[in-house]
Amino acid sequence: MKVKDSAQQHLKEQREYVRKRHLEAQRRTAKKGGATGLVDEKMLAHTMRSVRYQDEGHAAGDVIDNAIEAGAAQVHLVFRTEGAAIQEIAFIDDGSGIDPSFLPHATKWGGSSNEGRRNTFGRFGFGLPSASVNRGTRFAVYSRIDAKKPFMSVTVDLNNLKAEGQVVSLPEPDELELPQWVSDYVTAEKAENPFEGGLEAVRTVVVWSDLDRLEWKKRQKATR
Q1: Pick from 205, 202, 140: nearest CA to 174
Q2: Is residue 94 a contact partner of residue 86, using CB atoms and an 8 Å limit?
Q3: Which residues of the chain are modeled with pLDDT < 70?
Q4: In degrees rounded to 5, what are phi and psi of residue 168?
Q5: Which residues contact 220 (CB under 8 A, 6 or more apart)?
Q6: How high does pLDDT run on average in the chain?
Q7: What are the tens digits of pLDDT across the range 5-42?
């Protein structure tokens, strides 16, 4: 009987210890301060890596849908490889482009310009960021609305988010040239599937990098 009582007492003490530690963790988190919004944006960004898509093919569909919604007549999906291994993936389109003032918001979950419209793919603004972090931890968006204007670019790197409390800062746009391998693809003279209009026709390029969760890591499998 004594042994049973001792075991029950020990179990009770363990539960009390666990409860105490649980509450202490809650209080530590609450004391960190910062913004007290409904969503912890940094945690959300990392959590979104694990939802929605079976593989990169399904994730790519959301980026392609966005381009079509923006009036693109052509969307090219291109790989940068080292040997046969895929290192980066780029989506190149000739749609409307993204206004520089909206470009940072295009990377934001819920950053849609289609609010209230029911006949569009990207109504809620989750497609681009969700798809882009699903298979890698970094993505960049290059865009312009006129061939005579330079490309503006924003980059999201999940491993280097700037956060204050629960709020993650939107990326600042910079004037940048397209990555050389993307430019080389678009301007190739004897391409099997040329990008019509060449570099002048390009409006938006989305580049996925730091690809740590690819289902198809080699070009041969990804292009079947």
Answers
A1: 140
A2: no
A3: 1-4, 29-30, 32-39, 110-125, 219-224
A4: -100, 130
A5: 84
A6: 84
A7: 788 888 889 988 888 887 787 777 667 655 556 667 88
Helices 56-69, 127-134: inter-axial angle, 10-degree rounding: 150
Give the residue carrying structure tokens 């980026």: 63
Tokens of 187: 């301007």
State both tokens at 27.
């209080």
SS3 content of the chain, % helix, strand, coil (to 5): 40, 20, 40
- Torsion, Cα 36 108 175 121, to 10 degrees, reads -160
Amino acid letter, residue 15: R
- DSSP bridge partners of 167: 164
Note the pLDDT of residue 121. Answer: 39
Tokens of 82: 């080292």
Do 208 and 139 contact (CB within 8 A), yes or no?
Answer: yes
